[in-house]
Specification:
The complex is a heterodimer of chains A (326) and B (330).
Chain A (H helix, E strand, L loop, with lengths): L4 E12 L2 E13 L4 E5 L6 H9 L7 E10 L2 E2 L5 H10 L1 E4 L3 H4 L6 H13 L3 H14 L5 H4 L9 H13 L5 E5 L7 H18 L2 E6 L2 H7 L2 E6 L2 E7 H6 L4 H8 L49 E4 L2 E3 L4 H5 L2
Parallel strand pairs in A: 3-8, 3-9, 6-7, 7-8
Antiparallel strand pairs in A: 1-2, 1-4, 4-5, 9-10, 10-12, 11-12
Helix pairs in contact in A: 4-5, 5-7, 7-8
Chain B lengths: L2 E16 L5 E17 L3 E5 L6 H8 L7 E6 L2 E2 L5 H10 E4 L13 H11 L9 H11 L16 H13 L5 E5 L7 H18 L2 E6 L2 H7 L2 E6 L2 E7 H6 L4 H9 L41 H5 L5 E3 L2 E3 L12
Parallel strand pairs in B: 3-8, 3-9, 6-7, 7-8
Antiparallel strand pairs in B: 1-2, 1-4, 4-5, 9-10, 11-12
Classes of the chains: A alpha/beta (326), B alpha/beta (330).
Chain lengths: 326, 330
């Protein structure tokens, strides 16, 4: 069976003045209809660049896709024509961004920005598009949608702007929604509202949802499956429950231990020593080895393959089995 | 035990003006609206709240970067806001701040040595000219940076390292209080833990008191002895870390705690989650009576008529007419 969206062995580099940054080094994941895939990683891990490659919105230069495939219903988008890509964008795969204020155009009303795509892509008249825009704002529970459709982004609060962007992304009924840190800029009480809304819309429309985040808490609450990224690679993938119960990669394990807990006042937190590597100079072998408490000689020489751990789990660690078994 | 810092009824309003030529004040942003608390030597008071609750304005006023509209603050028993000349210089030596964004709070044209050593220009008595470089190296070492990097510029450091530079600068004058305004929120999880551990170590080593401002409730719990929860310019609940996290009595505290996602998928759907509706009202025109009533599920007529005082209700101060304990953290 072909997956709804599949990313395979993606290699992307950024050619900068300081040298070539290897931003993605063989990233692969897939998401099916009705499924929530969380992509977890820290800044610079490549989680957003992967999404931007899928959407075809990377700027070249500096970004170059060196290898790999992005398949939507089995069709490779990287080799598709610009016209075909535009068709898929919005209708097949839509994306929402972290900072809704800069993602929305400040000089057009929120309504206009939703209607634009309906008129261009669906051939709706102004009044039809307006009617549909109001319905969409209603759907994402923006109160007084009829009035608010005429307002500008700056007149919306942070949470409302994020709702408006979700409404916009749903206008063409996409099959996959990629949400790049959708709640990072929001307060916790508003974050909870937006995550509930996303989960509900996903359930109702049976969409595939790719949720990009650095927040382990958010991941634990909504993800079906999780991929963990580090230095442009996927280091671990597993279903949410087993990943949190027993991580299979030292990086995932360390990340979980370094998190302060809401349910207990801790003493000293476990930390991950050092810093994530510069993508201009990724260490040889396993990119995590200079920071890894379990590293041995082999780790600085051989890149660990994706070790299968059963139940669809994989871990890119030479000692994956041992990590998994504690 | 004598309090190091005592804040009484602190108010900070910012005027909202209209017009270009004849500026007319049309209202006030009530950023901080009557805040009182105390801070003992060597203690950490956590201040939590969502954006716009006034926690950063509180930091600015405490550091005397903004004059207060009303209210009083005592440092070691002496009124701070009336201080001038030497008394004020002395106060500034004793109170330092660490800011949120390590990218904008360090001057990109100054070396790390100049940044960390700059406080000595104003307070030469702390480190005589000849011993400054040595003192700066020592400070870099204390915060876990390589003292050899004294001549580097901020852009040559990562976010976490820059935050350490900011901390070294704050430590330079051996203050008694450091106000930390969201010191780890710009950092990645793995780096955040390093900086939090550093803050804790420094507190033990130098007997520092912290006013620790953050929006992340887990971070605040981890570092704080006592915690104040702010909403729209007011403290709605204050107590020990245990009282606030395990026995919260104010509905806002309960909602805030229950909204924090917990990193355990096994608890999905089993937690007592309180979903608030709507947004925080504007601080220009806050609701009458209790400011939280527009989003509160317990609100009654009395909440619109009478502002609930922050007084002991069931063990610790809580500003709710219907304060009642409800445990929401698993």
């Amino acid at each position: 069976m072909t997956a709804l969206l599949e990313v395979e062995d993606l290699h992307v580099e950024f050619r900068t003045r300081d040298g070539v940054a290897r931003v993605l080094n063989g990233v692969g994941y897939h998401v099916d209809a009705g499924e929530t895939l969380a992509v977890l990683g820290e800044s610079g891990s490549g989680k957003s660049v992967t999404a931007q490659t899928v959407m075809g919105i990377l700027d070249t230069p500096p970004a170059y896709v060196m290898r790999g495939a992005v398949r939507f219903h089995g069709e490779d988008l990287l080799s598709a024509t610009a016209e075909r890509r535009r068709e898929v964008r919005g209708e097949g795969i839509a994306m929402i961004f972290q900072d809704a204020l800069s993602a929305l155009n400040p000089v057009f009303t929120v309504g206009f920005q939703i209607e634009e795509q309906l008129r261009l892509r669906r051939g709706m008249s102004r009044s039809e598009a307006r009617k549909r825009a109001v319905e969409l704002l209603d759907l994402v529970r923006i109160p007084h949608a009829r009035q608010r459709v005429r307002e500008y982004p700056h007149q919306f609060s942070g949470g409302m702007r994020q709702r408006a962007m979700i409404a916009m992304s749903l206008a063409l009924d996409p099959e996959v929604l990629i949400a790049d840190e959708p709640t990072t800029a929001l307060d916790v009480t508003v974050q909870a509202q937006i995550m509930d809304l996303l989960a509900e819309i996903q359930r109702e429309r049976h969409m595939g949802l790719v949720l990009i985040t650095h927040d382990l808490g958010v991941v634990a609450e909504v993800a079906d499956r999780i991929v963990v990224m580090y230095a442009g690679r996927i280091v671990e993938q597993a279903d949410a429950v087993s990943l949190f119960r027993s991580p299979g990669h030292p990086y995932t394990e360390a990340l979980m231990k370094s998190l302060p807990r809401l349910d207990a006042k801790g003493t000293t937190l476990d930390t991950i020593k050092g810093l994530p590597p510069s993508l201009l100079r990724i260490p040889p072998g396993c990119p995590f080895h200079p920071r890894c408490p379990r590293a041995e000689a082999v780790c600085s020489v051989d890149v660990p393959p994706q070790e299968r751990l059963g139940f669809g789990r994989t871990s890119a660690c030479h000692f994956a089995e041992e990590v998994l078994n504690g | 035990m004598a309090e190091l810092l005592e804040v009484r009824n602190l108010v900070k309003h910012f005027p909202v003006t209209r017009g270009v030529l004849f500026k007319k004040t049309v209202g006030h942003v009530r950023a901080v609206d009557g805040v009182s608390f105390t801070l003992a030597a060597g203690e950490t008071l956590g201040v939590v709240g969502e954006s716009g609750c006034g926690k950063s304005t509180l930091a600015q006023v405490l550091m005397m970067l903004e004059p207060p509209t009303a209210g009083e603050a005592l440092f070691e028993g002496r009124p701070m806001f009336a201080m001038r000349g030497n008394a004020l210089r002395d106060l500034r030596r004793n109170m330092q701040i660490v800011l949120q964004d390590p990218y904008t709070s360090l001057n990109p044209r100054m070396t790390v040595g100049d940044i960390v050593g700059e406080p000595f220009e104003i307070h030469p008595e702390v480190a005589p000219r000849g011993s400054r470089a040595a003192r700066v190296r020592e400070l870099l070492d204390v915060v876990g940076l390589n003292p050899e990097h004294i001549n580097r510029y901020p852009h040559q450091f990562s976010g976490g390292q820059r935050q350490r530079i900011g901390i070294a600068r704050a430590l330079a004058l051996r203050p008694k209080v450091i106000v930390c305004d969201e010191p780890v929120s710009a950092l990645d999880v793995s780096i955040q833990a390093q900086v939090m551990n550093l803050l804790r170590e420094l507190q033990g080593e130098f007997g520092l008191a912290y006013v620790f401002i953050a929006h992340d409730l887990s971070v605040v719990r981890h570092l704080s002895d006592r915690v104040a929860v702010m909403y729209l310019g007011k403290i709605v609940e204050i107590g020990t870390e245990d009282e606030i996290y395990r026995h919260p009595t104010h509905p806002y505290t309960q909602a805030l705690l229950s909204a924090v996602p917990v990193a355990d998928p096994a608890l999905r759907g089993q937690r007592d989650v309180i979903r608030l509706t709507g947004d925080v009202p504007s601080p220009i025109d806050p609701p009458s009576g209790c400011r939280f009533r527009t989003r509160c599920w317990k609100a009654q007529d009395v909440c619109a008529e009478q502002e609930p005082a922050l007084v002991d209700r069931g063990g610790h101060p809580s500003a709710c007419h219907f304060a009642e304990e409800r445990s929401v953290v698993p």
